[in-house]
Specification:
Helices cover about 65% and strands about 0% of the residues. It has about 550 residues and is an all-alpha fold.
Length: about 550
């Protein structure tokens, strides 16, 4: 007796004839725009650092232990402790993506997307309880650990599916989806700011209520995205597209590598180094963008030749507002870079694209201290905007690079394992930026020059990354799966040759154009609002 496959079963997501593949990118964006709020969590640090004192932080005893800080409800948390939530996000993102990547290939993107929605939204809800009870360990467990697992699953959920739907435009397809992760903060941070202002009062800062509202909004959006996923039948290809002839492009394979063999290939570890070094250079800047601009330029942001420490409180507040706009502008260019560079890689190739990232990035990082020393605010901002396009472009291009080298059968699982490089970079980049800054300040270096050495070191990271990229070669033929092994893997992944094998005699149903337009409007309108808000706030940087 046969049983009906469950609603989340992969076989229920195989697209019927006539399905429009352009419905998949907005489904992926619906998830990525939500989990991308991880980048914007710094908007909560200052309010949470005075959750007890409300108007000013209530400092804990100088000799308070870590356990006391995690469990106390009588004094406020430091920003440094709260910042570990940010680190947990990316450590858990990479590790969960590596751990569950192969499961995703078998379970399908819909099931992975639903689990991601439950983890991310449920983690925020648990973090809300932690804030309400003032228990930092609950915030770390909810947002950092459980939410971090949701980040990993949500991040990789559309990758393999998009690459299979867009074999002709691999870079563009993954760029469209992954740009949502870069843009999540652009939407989430202003929304969080509005909600906190609404809920704040004489006895509360409004964070836990904001967490709950955002958890509900994200749950709905992510579930809609997850149920919008469809996978193509095995062997599907776009009408009129001819697959590349084997051997015609040395860096693009037509065969498939098993995920369990990828650890033993030098290509995997070289790409691991490429991603880790590119991300380490960018993520440290992302985490310190606001204080960096304030300390480098100080009063010059207001037309006053004074360092930040010598400004009156009102001026410092105005400088902080301008610096927040700088952080938002970097988020915008992070997004634009993901779609631009990933699409550009379809033209010039992945390896050449990464060479552009590294060589141009080295020049820009090396030029930034001079721009800062000369007081050239607009030039300094422009340099980092371009840098952030390549930071985002690196994330968006790497899935297509993996598919080119290792094939598409297990590309989602391989991508998940490669994201452990992000976990390492999420620690390495901020540590380098933060601790070198502290060292410089402790040894009497002016705050306006405290980032110069760091920027040169980050340029060195990119030089090492370019060497890794230079050494990448095509994978040896004997490492790929045989036709028999590939057939077994496709059977394990519940793949079918066509939808008719599931529902005999089904008539082709052409996806209505109105449905495609509606899906893109649903994700496009919030993105347009975020872009408009960011641009308006950033205009003073270029006056």
């Amino acid at each position: 007796m046969s049983t009906m496959p469950g609603l989340l079963d992969k076989t229920r997501t195989v697209a019927a004839p006539g399905f429009n593949r352009w419905l998949i990118p907005p489904a992926a964006l619906a998830i990525h725009l939500c989990i991308g709020m991880a980048y914007g969590f710094s908007v909560f640090w200052l309010p949470l650092s005075r959750a007890v004192g409300i108007t000013a932080p209530v400092a804990c005893a100088a000799d308070a232990s870590l356990w006391t800080s995690l469990t106390t409800s009588s004094c406020d948390w430091s920003v440094a402790l709260l910042g570990w939530t940010y680190t947990l996000f990316f450590v858990l993102l990479g590790s969960s993506a590596a751990l569950f990547g192969h499961w995703l290939e078998t379970a399908g993107p819909r099931k992975a997307g639903v689990v991601s929605a439950l983890c991310w939204s449920g983690g925020l809800a648990l973090a809300a309880l932690g804030v309400q009870q003032h228990q930092l360990w609950l915030v770390w467990l909810g947002a950092g650990v459980i939410g971090g697992i949701g980040l990993g699953l949500g991040y990789i959920s559309p990758v393999s599916t998009l690459i299979k739907w867009f074999p002709d435009r691999r870079g563009m397809a993954t760029g469209m989806a992954i740009m949502g992760f870069g843009g999540g903060a652009m939407l989430g941070a202003p929304m969080a700011d509005l909600l906190m202002k609404h809920f704040a009062g004489p006895t509360q800062v409004g964070v836990w209520q904001t967490f709950l509202v955002m958890a509900a909004v994200y749950a709905v959006s992510m579930l809609l995205g997850a149920f919008g996923y469809r996978v193509p039948p095995t062997g599907w290809k776009p009408q009129g597209w001819t697959p590349p002839v084997a051997g015609a492009q040395a860096m693009v394979t037509t065969r498939h590598l098993h995920v369990d063999r990828v650890w033993s290939t030098p290509q995997f570890w070289l790409l691991w180094g490429v991603l880790c070094l590119n991300v380490s250079a960018g993520i440290g800047v992302v985490g310190m963008a606001s204080p960096m601009l304030q300390e480098v330029f100080g009063g010059r942001l207001l037309g006053k030749a004074l360092p930040l420490a010598d400004l009156i409180p009102a001026d410092r507040a105005q400088v902080a507002t301008i610096a927040a706009a700088f952080a938002g502008l970097l988020s915008l260019f992070n997004i634009l870079g993901r779609i631009f560079w990933a699409s550009f890689s379809d033209v010039i190739g992945r390896k050449a694209t990464y060479f552009v990232f590294f060589l141009l990035g080295i020049a820009l990082y090396a030029a930034a201290p001079s721009a800062g020393g000369a007081g050239q605010v607009a030039l300094f901002v422009a340099l980092f905007c371009v840098i952030l396009t390549m930071y985002g472009g690196g994330f968006a291009t790497i899935p297509a690079y993996l598919a080119d080298l290792f094939g598409t059968q297990h590309v989602g699982a391989i991508h998940g394992r490669l994201l452990t490089a992000w976990s390492v970079a999420g620690i390495l980049g901020p540590v380098v930026v933060n601790y070198i800054r502290e060292f410089q300040l402790a040894h009497g270096v002016p705050a306006s020059q405290a980032y110069n050495t760091t920027l040169y070191i980050l340029a060195g990271f990119l030089l090492l990354g370019s060497l890794c990229n230079l050494l990448v070669r095509p994978v040896a033929a004997e490492r790929f799966m045989s036709d028999e092994e590939l057939a077994r893997e496709r059977a394990l992944a519940h793949e079918v040759a066509s939808r008719e094998q599931l529902q005999a005699g089904e008539q082709q149903r052409i996806t209505p154009v109105a449905l495609v337009v509606l899906a893109w409007v649903a994700v496009g309108v919030p993105m347009a609002w975020g872009i408009w808000t960011t641009v308006i706030k950033a205009l003073p940087l270029f006056r």
